[in-house]
Design brief:
Among the domains are: 4-99, Rossmann fold (3-Layer(aba) Sandwich), CATH 3.40.50; 109-189, 2-Layer Sandwich (Dna Ligase, domain 1); 254-379, Aminopeptidase. It has helices at 13-24, 59-72, 85-88, 101-108, 110-119, 133-139, 164-169, 231-237, 262-273, 286-301, 310-319, 363-378, 389-393, 413-437; strands at residues 4-8, 28-33, 48-51, 77-79, 127-130, 145-149, 159-160, 178-182, 189-196, 199-207, 218-223, 241-251, 277-280, 323-329, 332-342, 345-353, 381-383, 398-407. The protein is α+β, with helices and mostly antiparallel strands. It is 35% helix and 26% strand. The relative contact order is 0.09. The protein is built from 14 helices and 18 strands. The strands form 4 sheets. It has an 8-stranded mixed sheet with strand order 11-18-12-17-16-15-14-13. A 4-stranded parallel sheet has the order 3-2-1-4, sandwiched between helices. Strands 5-8-6-7 form a 4-stranded antiparallel sheet, with helices on both faces.
Length: 439
Amino acid sequence: MKATVLLTGGRAPATLDLARFFSRAGIRVVTADSLRFPLTRFSRAVAHHARVPAPRPDPGAFLAALRTLVHTHRVDLLIPTCEECFSLADVAGLPAFVEERERLLQVHSKQRFADLARSLGLPVPPTRRVTSPEEALEAWGAGPVVLKPEFSRFAARVLIRPGREQVLRADIRPDRPWVIQSYRPGRIVCTYSLVHRGRIAAHAAYAAEITWGPGSAVVFRSVDDRATPGLGRALRALGYRLVDARRVYHADPSDPALFGLRDVKHDLRLARRTSYRAVEVRKADLPRVRDLYERLYLDKYSRYNPRFTLDFLRLALDEGLIEMRALAVADRIDAVWGTFRRGRRMTQPLFGYDTSLPQGLGLYRLLSLQVLEVGRERRLEVRQSSGAGRFKRLRGGVPTPEYLAVYDAHLPVGRRLPWGLVQTLAARVGRPLVERFGL
């Protein structure tokens, strides 16, 4: 029987990442959350998802629900991923992977963490715990300050250099204390460490160049009804707005009619008489692969397209993240494409050719034909992205609207207005132009 792991906090992207990791390792994954539609509920990596009571208002009901899940699904390990770790700390009878409560308090309390850092010899701004707005004003010395809840996450309620009125409006109470610190100007630097058996195995420090104040919109890209049937409808029901992004194309090479289309027949004749042959991409070819991609996607299309580094291409080739093929003549690669599959669809994030060569060689046509032939061989639908609309329609491509799904209901009105404007312009101006010019 497979081992089973139970992950709480199913709304968090980190939980989804853990679920995928355990699933790939052959471990059965169960998730739990108090939200109705958390991220992990829709993941193929999750064998079962359960909605449980929220831990803060009713910790007893939360623990009872987890005990039921542990018993029903024979859970071997329970991993809390968010603040519910406090509810599970020091609780007997559950196979929870969690620190003792005292250790959790030491690193989650902003006052106690500041004290810990100071005891280790690190420079820490003057910090004081306060239990009312009046006490915060009393503790306010000379110069600007930072005010934040003692226990909070994502910096959603942090007040940086607040005014007196902001402090008076803050929800500071004896049962919900805050901390006040002297403000230190400078760049914001975030750090992240991986620790294995008490030793730091990897560490990263990076500047937070852009921050979004009290919160930001939640955005899902590439929502289209053909690749993700029902997803757009479900997101709209949850309060997301669907913003027109572009029109993408899907082709089904398993349909015999596709290879009977006139332009596909022309491409097949070109493939029979060309001097180019299909070859596998080797590591030594990767500088040329990057150059061909950049000639098409950066130099010809847009400098804002993704830039693939040689390190990434080596990793993708070594790990099989992207399957790469090329067209070569006289041992020189002049065109390349790379694909990966998700379910019954394949898509090509890597596509390029030597744009300095004569158009009559038909390199773009040959690449596109290779993709269709591989799709037919593997009985996969081909997602052809956007652009070159007429070319793709003549070769069986079916146009499909693609959307950004944007959730901004939690933001202030001023932060929602830009998304509303973009949605209106995209629907009333962008969509008609795309349809008119067949993009």
